[in-house]
Write a structure and sequence with these properties.
248 residues, mainly alpha, 9 helices, 74% helix, globular
Length: 248
């Protein structure tokens, strides 16, 4: 009976967290569709704060090293989403890049112990699309980047490393890492090469939201398997897992 109550409470918390996050995502993406820039801006501030409870419920305390670092990465991503609104012009862009660069560092450190499980590193030829995208992106952005080229290249390398390493965590995390790469590639091409898609903001944010969501789901799936490569946070007895069962 006690286990049943615990599972019901866990399920209720998960449903509530997912509903809130889903509502924020829906309003944000719809605001891009209808051109409501003010709503899009405000809801962008709320995306990561609404996603954090999903991870906390899916990967309950005590949090393993990987989960803690991903929470740090999410916090820095939130600053990257919101802090640029306090600056103007190129300064706002630099603020965004700085916080997302730190977020990528947190993700790289979180995923680095999983490198042996990466199918991309086990089959190096699979790295070719990532390398081609990175080189093409730098080539397209370099002429207009000026003094920003160095930080953009450093950020791109961190993003590339995160994308590859995330594939060692789980399939969902690997897809999330790839979509993060796509989202930021669209931003860079629009900012420096003048290559923007119709409804650019919608596609950038859709890829970004999917990326962060899949990283959270993938990390939670690895937590569910007890797959903590450093051995510091395996399953804890009696803690509900994402399928509602207590860990054994």
């Amino acid at each position: 009976m006690r286990t049943r109550i615990t599972q019901d409470r866990w399920g209720g918390r998960l449903r509530a967290a997912v509903l809130v996050y889903g509502a924020v995502v829906a309003v944000h993406l719809m605001s891009h569709v209808v051109g409501a820039a003010g709503v899009a801006n405000v809801t962008q501030w709320l995306l990561v704060p609404a996603l954090v409870p999903v991870l906390v419920v899916l990967a309950p305390a005590p949090h393993e090293r990987r989960v803690r670092l991903v929470l740090v990465g999410l916090g820095l991503s939130w600053l990257g989403d919101s802090a640029p609104d306090l600056a103007d012009g190129s300064t706002a862009f630099l603020v965004m890049v700085a916080f997302f660069m730190l977020a990528q560092v947190a993700y790289v450190v979180a995923f680095a112990p999983d490198w042996r499980g990466s199918p991309l590193l086990r089959r190096p030829w699979l790295l070719a699309p990532y390398a081609l995208l990175f080189v093409s992106l730098v080539a397209a952005c370099a002429p207009a980047a000026g003094t920003l080229l160095a930080p953009v290249v450093v950020y791109g390398l961190l993003l590339l490393a995160m994308s590859v390493l995330s594939s060692g965590v789980s399939r969902a995390a690997g897809i999330g890492g790839a979509l993060f790469f796509v989202s930021d590639a669209l931003i860079a091409l629009g900012e420096f090469a003048g290559l923007a898609l119709p409804r650019q903001g919608l596609w950038v944010m859709a890829a970004y939201i999917a990326a962060q969501t899949l990283l959270v789901v993938g990390v939670a799936a690895a937590r569910r398997r007890g797959a903590e490569p450093s051995g510091g946070g395996a399953r804890m007895r009696g803690v509900p897992e994402p399928d509602g069962r207590p860990a054994s």
